[in-house]
Amino acid sequence: MKPRHFITLQDLDRPTILQLFRTASELKQERSASARPAATHPRRGTSSAAGTVPPRPLAGKTLGLLFQKPSVRTRVSFEVGMAQLGGTSLYIGPVELEGGKREAPKDVARVLSRYLDGIVARTFRHSEVEEMARYSDIPVINGLSDASHPCQALADLLTVQEKVGHLKGTQIAYVGDGNNVCHSLMEGCALLGVHLAVAAPKGYQPDPAVTQWAGQQAKRSGAKIEIFTRPSPAVRGASIVYTDVWTSMGQEQEKARRQKAFRGFQVTSRMMKQAGRGALFMHCLPAHRGEEVSDEVMDSRQSIVYDQAENRLHVQKAILLMLLKR
Fold first, then answer.
1. What is the DSSP string of 271-282?
2. Measured distance CA(98)–CA(94) in Å, rounded
């Protein structure tokens, strides 16, 4: 399966995701090898032990980064990834885009299709990413929208595979807002046979349409997708405890109300003890320390948040190769 765009994980199937993970792992291995002294890795232009990705496979390609929201990880990982693959990138930020008010997304997509080879769109509204994809002649990648964060979920699940050793049957507890990160995690877990228990207070649970789609896919993969209103039943026995910010960018006016609603949902050492033995902690970052997670957990040996962040680079390089390499 080779999708034209990558807007949500619903665009992919299980074999395609697993192939992306194989490519990402190979790219990660090659990157690690290149950082060693010259005598310990192959000469430039030769294949590595994993080696099926030629050097500079995206030479001559240009990627546009259309960001209505500022970013650290998404922008840097895509820019660095494109450079490592031999291509170039162009950042078009909030000032130029004016939050999508200056120009219709379909017009932007039609024009940029004449200049670029691919687009990464980071928008406030998911409908704008979808509109760009409908009118674009080049691949569009969702770098984050209010409904979905698919690149993050792929990096998360690759990290779980690395740390746990397998995906199918692994139990993940997601504690917090049923937001874009939660939606993509639900979709990925459902496709790959990963058990996911979501704990979110009433009024902040995942979109019912995403829950329904994930439930249907889970029946095929053997996954179990459960929704709770309290953390304890979700966390009990989990191998992974995952959380995200309670107040996302653009929701600042809701902060006081959200802090009240999420009282008791902070991931603490006490909560981690309810999880399975040796349970690991994950967060997509940025973290609001002292809100959704305590410093003690964030800085503990159980925390693998920086491994997640690194894997954004490798997974996104695999996505770029899938969509841009011809």
1. HHHHS-TT-EEE
2. 5
pTM of the model: 0.93
Structure tokens at 235: 């966390």
Angle, alpha carbons 120-75-59 (nearest 5°): 65
Q: What is the mean pLDDT of residues 130-151?
A: 97
Q: Which residue has the tokens 């990963």?
A: 194
Which pLDDT score, from 0 to 100, does residue 94 have? Answer: 85
Q: Which residues contact 254 (CB under 8 A, 6 or more apart)?
A: 247
Helices (H), the chain: 14-34, 73-84, 94-97, 105-112, 126-135, 150-164, 180-192, 208-221, 231-235, 255-261, 269-274, 295-298, 305-324
Q: Given pLDDT bands bounded at 50, 70 and 90, which one contains residue 205? A: very high
155-185 per-position pLDDT tens digit = 999 999 999 999 999 999 999 999 999 999 9
Active site (catalytic) residues: 122, 149, 152, 244, 284, 312
Query: Which pLDDT does position 43 carry in this prediction?
Result: 45
Predicted local confidence at residue 156, as pLDDT:
98
DSSP-derived secondary structure letter, 149: -
The gap between the terminal CA atoms of the chain, to the nearest Å, is 14
- Contact (CB, 8 A) for 118 and 142: no
Average pLDDT of 302-311? 98
Phi, psi of 117 (to 5 degrees): -110, -15
Check residue 46 and give its pLDDT. 40
How distant, in Å, are the alpha carbons of 74, 110, 122, 180, 271 from that of 249? Answer: 14, 28, 12, 12, 26
- In sequence order, the 6+-apart residues with CB closer than 8 A to the CB of 238 are 171, 172, 173, 197, 275, 276, 279
Q: Which domains does the chain have, with CATH numbers?
A: 9-149+312-324 (3.40.50.1370), 150-308 (3.40.50.1370)
CA atoms of 168 and 177, how far apart (whole Å): 24
pLDDT-derived band at 32, boundaries 50, 70, 90: confident
